[in-house]
Design goal:
single chain; 3-stranded parallel β-sheet; 8 helices; about 260 residues; alpha/beta
Length: about 260
């Protein structure tokens, strides 16, 4: 049974965005440069000390990363939370989070790549609407106007509709129609890894969106088949397939 939807407060110019690294670490100079770009967008930035931690590829131990997320949610001086980067590591945090802290202190939580593991778990355990959006790492070059403009207009509540066209945005309709429903989804490999765990959520009645990077054609085929056989596609209202970047074929072409 789904929990009531919690919509976090919109962000305004001058609000403070807390930065956390739930997955891989970023170089200190990259954190500072990207934070400068976020400040140029009109926000104050709080860099949680956890971002400077290194534990192999991770930005600190599992406990350290989970604690940082909770501390940013509990801190009244933080108005929204942006993840520094993805990669790998978020799945380790799901059992460590105290979801009542998040539910009692709802605020914007934004990230993609490895972060949808957290997005889905938080949504399922608390009802909080999370944001599949840019991370600090994506603001390093500050060159994707569509992403940065959409981010600011979404988090301040100004963007009610986004129109994407076949001509300008390369949208390829497979089955056309009209539907209004909540969005759910994220990185396909992460969604697959949540199936059968306490952190999976029902897709029924939602528009499902999927994206992935650095996978093989056969792997995408296998994951989509798993979604279907697990019943995750049976009662969705729509399906959006985002960018599948750096997808590989085998020496002998897969053929699809």
């Amino acid at each position: 049974m789904s929990l009531p939807l919690i919509k976090p407060q919109a962000l305004n110019p001058g609000d403070t965005i807390g930065i956390v690294s739930p997955s891989r670490w970023m170089k200190e100079e990259d954190l500072a440069r990207a934070a400068g770009n976020l400040k140029d967008m009109g926000f104050n930035v709080y860099m949680h000390p956890q971002n400077a931690r290194h534990y192999n590829q991770f930005a600190g131990s599992d406990e350290c990363r989970a604690d940082a997320i909770e501390e940013l949610f509990a801190d009244d001086k933080i108005d929204g939370i942006m993840c520094a980067r993805g990669g790998v590591g978020s799945l380790w945090l799901l059992e460590r989070l105290h979801y009542d802290v998040i539910q009692n202190n709802p605020k914007i939580f934004c990230g993609f790549s490895d972060v949808p593991a957290l997005n889905m778990a938080i949504y399922g355990k608390t009802g909080l609407s999370t944001f599949h959006g840019p991370m600090l790492h994506n603001l390093l070059k500050n060159e994707n106007d569509l992403t940065t403009n959409a981010f600011t207009r979404v988090v301040d509540g100004a963007l009610e509709l986004m129109h994407l066209s076949v001509e300008q945005d390369g949208i390829t309709p497979v089955r056309q129609g009209s539907v209004t429903a909540p969005l759910i989804g994220g990185n396909l490999a992460l969604l697959i890894n949540l199936i059968g765990t306490p952190y999976d959520v029902p897709y029924d009645g939602h528009i499902l969106f999927i994206e992935d990077v650095d996978e093989y054609y056969y792997s995408l085929d296998r994951m989509l088949l798993h979604l279907q056989r697990a019943g995750k596609l049976a009662n969705i209202k729509g399906l959006i397939v985002g960018d599948m970047q750096d997808i590989h074929d085998n020496e002998e072409p897969y053929g699809f």
